[in-house]
Design a protein that fits this description.
Blueprint: E1 2-4, E2 7-11, E3 25-29, E4 34-37, H1 45-54, H2 59-62, E5 63-67, H3 73-76, H4 79-86, E6 89-93, H5 97-102, H6 105-116, E7 133-135, E8 140-143, E9 146-152, E10 161-165, E11 171-175, H7 194-200, E12 211-214, H8 224-234
The structure holds zinc ion.
Zinc ion is lined by residues 70, 72, 75, 156-157, 176, 185.
Length: 251
């Protein structure tokens, strides 16, 4: 469904737009080219594909790239299915691409913790996917008429990145780095690191973001930067920052 000019929500477990475990999955429509941002958990990818069609797009013809913010199952578990269904180029940040392709101990330990917490069913199997392009912090990407920049903020996971749209209204797909009100995605799994969060959150300073589209919960069309600034502020104090677990449905 269209939530802003050229931006559609085609997956999201919070509002049961697709599988309950899916993160928000967005389309950025740059005219000649379109990108999907994140891929959901991979259990009901057909629902995401159906939503893409209902919004008037042909998954195979219209989706040119698949931007994956990080490898966690609710964001990257559907990458393999959506990459093959769309034929899109899969782009992921360094530090996450490796887990998407090959998994690894840290991803497995995190998945086990998530299963223990009832986030994923015990029999969930992560489907790995080839990554076509690995991007670094501050990498420039083009999606049709839009110029994007990768903003990597390790902390929630090893190499998580958000994607900043650098034209008006400036938009930031913040994944699990920052949620509404400056909540952060802090949790108990390998790769989550408070030192990294604190040391990297400053990369969100002065981005002049209007529209903020996080990986879960609510989004906003105005004053997105105030939510990023709140997260920066929250990571300056001595106590654990307010985190998404306070309103996570699986908690
Ligand atoms: Zn995550």
């Amino acid at each position: 469904m269209r939530i802003a000019k050229d931006i559609y929500l085609v997956g999201g477990g919070d509002i049961r737009l697709s599988n309950r475990m899916d993160c928000h999955v967005y389309i950025l429509d740059g005219g000649k080219e379109k990108a999907l941002i994140d891929a959901g958990v991979g259990l009901d990818s057909h629902e995401i594909l159906r939503n893409i069609e209902e919004d008037g797009f042909d998954p195979k013809r219209d989706i040119d790239c698949l931007l994956i913010t990080h490898a966690h199952a609710d964001h990257g578990g559907g990458a393999s299915a959506l990459r093959s269904a769309t034929g899109a180029e899969l782009i992921a940040p360094r530090g996450e691409a490796e887990f998407l392709e090959n998994g690894g101990r840290d991803l497995e330990v995190g998945l086990k913790a998530a299963k223990e917490s009832g986030i994923y069913p015990k029999n969930y199997v992560y489907k790995h996917s080839k990554v076509d392009r690995v991007v670094h912090h501050n990498a420039k990407l083009r999606v049709g008429s839009y110029l994007l920049r990768t903003i990597q903020v390790p902390g929630h996971s090893h190499g998580i990145a958000g994607f900043l749209v650098e034209s008006e209204p400036r938009s930031f797909f913040s994944s699990d780095i920052v949620f509404i009100n400056g909540n952060v995605g802090f949790g108990n799994w390998p790769g989550c690191n408070l030192d990294n969060y604190r040391n990297n959150i400053g990369r969100l300073k002065n981005l002049l973001v209007e529209q903020l589209f996080p990986g879960h919960f609510m989004w906003t069309l105005r004053d997105g930067q105030t939510h990023l600034d709140a997260a920066i502020q929250n990571l300056k104090g001595a106590w654990l920052p307010p985190s998404w677990t306070h309103n996570h449905p699986f908690r």
